[in-house]
Structure formats: structure tokens, C-alpha cells
């Protein structure tokens, strides 16, 4: 008998439709994304790259409401390990996204660290390991950002470990969590990125359960991942090679992750994200429909 996963609110994101940029000729129009995510049976979406969906709150709310959709979060990329020099530019962008996020009724801001190597060429932008001073800048900067986002916009900040960033592996995620205030900074656990970087999502949920504030659901193809690791492939090309795949075809196994999240006893967004930029425009919808059926079969 399938145990109902009634603490998980399932949604999807522009990422699952191959959307990585505000405007790109290889991406489906935003109206098609909204139509198809609703058609697939999801109730929740994320905003995706700022500017992809309409940025006028009244229009955006009308477009989502007409399709029975609600917004769970906005997303920003930051480079807070670079210290005070980047603060003003960071806040200018974050506040813009946070304002729209709040206007939709969403309650979360997903913060993704910047890449340490070029997402297309694999050229190093900066070292893959931070210095102690950079770690302090990252953790104190994230706390500062999260407090201001909470105080000015009422949003919870959840930091997203991500491939080819400085918060990626089990070691780096634990170091980040241990050095930040749980009252203001929590985690968006992306099961695919964490597996990509060698992490165990169930173990993380069981160890740092009180810090799990949000979930991204995805899987990686272990055979493609092995080639990616062997060749030192950057994340962007790895996605084009199919490193991310739909469940239940990859890892981590989804049922134990969902069960561990349910056992936390708190309401969590669990947003499906299958990185696949670029992709043919007709590819996302059937994948999204199959994934929603699979998750229903798991009790979600």
C-alpha cells in the first residue's frame, strides 16, 4: 500500500521545459510552458529566470490563475563569496526578483551560488575550492542576504547546492550548513545535483532534516555521469549529453527520498526540475506527464 505523501506539495519549473534564460530562441514561449505545466497536472511552478515569465505582477497572477497554477518560489544566482564588493549589485537583482516573488504570494527565494567554471567551455573562472576568507564571505553574506530578504519581503531563503559551484558535495554542503544560522538560512535540496556531486539525499535529510526547507526533484543517469566525471565535462555540456533523466530511470531512487522528506513532518515544496537545455519544443510535455504519474504512484 502506498503511503500518502501529504506533506509534499508537488510542482514543476521552467527548467523542466528547457528554460535557462529570460529570452532565448531555443526555448518554448512562456505561455506554452504555463499551458503545458498545467496540462501535466501540476499545481505549483517556480518563476525561473527573471524576465522569462511576465514581470508585471497583475499580468503574471492573472496568467497563472487562469491555468490553476500558483507560484512557490523565485530564483537568483549570487556570488557572495566575493565579498562586500558585489553586495550592491547582488541586492539590486535579488530585490527585483524578491519583489515579484512576494507579489505572486510565494514564500521562498531559491539562491544558487555562482559557477566556478564556464558552463559551456569548462574554462576555469576561479578556483573550485574557496579560501577560508571566501568561505566566511559566503556564509556571512548569505546570512545578511537572507535576513534582509526576510525583513523586507517576508520570504524564506533556501540555498541550492549545484554542480560546478562551491556548494556542491557532501563536505561542502555540511560545511556551509554548519557555518550558517538555521534561523535565516536553510537548504533547497536538489536530489539530482546532489547525486551528480556524489551526495546521498536520504542521508542529508536524516542528518540535517531541520535545515531542509525546499526540494527539487530530479535524477541523474549514472552511465552518463560516469563519462562526465571521467572527461571533466562542465555542467552545461553534461546536460546536453543527457546526464539528467526522468524518474525512475536514474539515481537517486526517488521513493526513499520522498519518504524521508515526508517523515520530517513539515510541509515542503517538492518541485520537479529536469535540466535539459536546449531541447526540442515537443520533448518536455510527455516527460512532465510521465513524471507526474510516477510521483502520484509514489503517493505524492
UniProtKB/TrEMBL annotation:
Keywords of this entry: Isomerase
Protein name (record): Sugar phosphate isomerase/epimerase
Signal peptide location: none
Keyword Isomerase: yes
InterPro entries found in the cross-reference section: IolE/XylAMocC-like, Xyl_isomerase-like_sf, Xyl_isomerase-like_TIM-brl
Record-annotated Xylose isomerase-like TIM barrel domain positions: 34-296
Superkingdom in the source lineage: Bacteria
Keyword Zinc: no
Transmembrane regions listed in the UniProt entry: none
GO molecular function: isomerase activity
Amino acid at each position: 500500500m502506498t503511503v500518502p505523501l501529504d506533506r509534499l506539495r508537488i510542482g514543476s519549473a521552467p527548467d523542466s521545459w528547457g528554460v535557462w534564460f529570460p529570452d532565448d530562441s531555443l526555448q518554448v514561449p512562456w505561455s506554452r510552458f504555463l499551458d503545458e505545466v498545467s496540462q501535466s497536472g501540476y499545481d505549483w511552478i517556480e518563476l525561473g529566470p527573471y524576465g522569462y515569465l511576465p514581470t508585471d505582477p497583475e499580468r503574471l497572477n492573472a496568467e497563472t490563475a487562469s491555468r490553476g497554477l500558483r507560484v512557490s518560489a523565485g530564483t537568483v544566482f549570487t556570488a557572495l563569496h566575493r565579498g562586500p564588493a558585489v553586495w550592491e549589485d547582488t541586492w539590486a537583482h535579488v530585490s527585483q526578483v524578491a519583489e515579484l516573488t512576494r507579489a505572486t504570494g510565494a514564500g521562498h527565494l531559491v539562491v544558487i551560488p555562482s559557477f566556478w567554471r564556464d558552463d559551456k567551455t569548462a574554462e576555469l573562472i576561479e578556483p573550485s575550492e574557496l579560501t577560508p576568507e571566501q568561505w566566511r564571505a559566503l556564509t556571512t553574506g548569505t546570512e545578511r542576504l537572507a535576513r534582509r530578504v526576510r525583513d523586507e519581503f517576508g520570504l524564506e531563503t533556501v540555498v541550492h547546492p549545484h554542480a560546478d559551484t562551491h556548494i556542491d558535495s557532501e563536505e561542502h554542503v555540511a560545511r556551509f550548513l554548519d557555518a550558517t544560522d538555521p534561523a535565516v538560512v536553510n537548504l533547497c535540496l536538489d536530489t539530482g545535483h546532489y547525486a551528480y556531486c556524489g551526495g546521498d539525499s536520504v542521508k542529508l535529510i536524516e542528518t540535517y532534516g531541520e535545515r531542509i526547507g525546499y526540494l527539487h526533484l530530479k535524477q541523474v543517469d549514472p552511465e552518463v555521469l560516469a563519462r562526465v566525471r571521467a572527461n571533466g565535462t562542465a555542467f552545461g555540456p553534461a546536460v546536453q549529453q543527457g546526464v539528467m533523466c526522468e524518474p525512475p530511470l536514474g539515481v537517486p531512487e526517488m521513493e526513499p527520498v520522498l519518504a524521508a522528506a515526508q517523515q520530517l513532518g513539515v510541509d515542503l515544496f517538492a518541485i520537479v526540475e529536469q535540466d535539459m537545455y536546449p531541447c526540442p519544443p515537443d520533448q518536455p510535455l510527455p516527460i512532465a506527464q510521465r513524471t507526474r504519474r510516477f510521483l502520484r504512484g509514489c503517493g505524492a
